[in-house]
Amino acid sequence: MPGLKRLRKGIIAAARSCLQPLLTTIPFCLFLLLDIYWKYENMPKCEGAVCSAAEHTKHSKSIMKSQRNFVLVLAAPLLYWLLYSATNMLVQVEKLNLQVEQLKQHHSD
C-alpha cells in the first residue's frame, strides 16, 4: 500500500522522541517504591477492637493505595521497556532495509 513507509517512519520518529522524556518515569518509580516501603515500615498497626471504624477505613485505604502504587511501579518500567524494544527493533529493520537496497543497487551496477 502506498504511504505505509512514510507512516512507519513517522511512527518511529514519534516513538523515539517520546522515549527520552518517558525515561523520567524510572526515578519517579524508584521514589514511589521507597515511599511504599516507608509507609509499610512506619504504618501504625490497626488490629482488633483498638481501632475505631474510621481508623480502620483509613488504614484499609492506605493499604489499597500502596498496592495500586506498586502496580504502577511495576507497569511503568515494563511499558517503557516495551516501547524502547519495539522502537529499537523497528530502527534496526529500517537500517537492514537500507542495506539491502544499497546491496541491490551495487549488485545491479
UniProtKB/TrEMBL annotation:
Membrane topology: Multi-pass membrane protein
Matches recorded under InterPro entries: BAP29/BAP31 (IPR008417)
UniProt keyword annotation of Endoplasmic reticulum present: yes
This protein's record includes keyword Lipid metabolism: no
Biological process according to GO: endoplasmic reticulum to Golgi vesicle-mediated transport; intracellular protein transport; protein localization to endoplasmic reticulum exit site
Keywords: Endoplasmic reticulum, ER-Golgi transport, Membrane, Protein transport, Transmembrane, Transmembrane helix, Transport
TM ranges: 21-38, 70-91
Subcellular location: Endoplasmic reticulum membrane
CC per GO annotation: endoplasmic reticulum membrane
Source taxon at top rank: Eukaryota
Entry function: May play a role in anterograde transport of membrane proteins from the endoplasmic reticulum to the Golgi.
Family listed: Belongs to the BCAP29/BCAP31 family.
Protein name per Swiss-Prot or TrEMBL: Endoplasmic reticulum transmembrane protein
Species of origin: Ceratopteris richardii
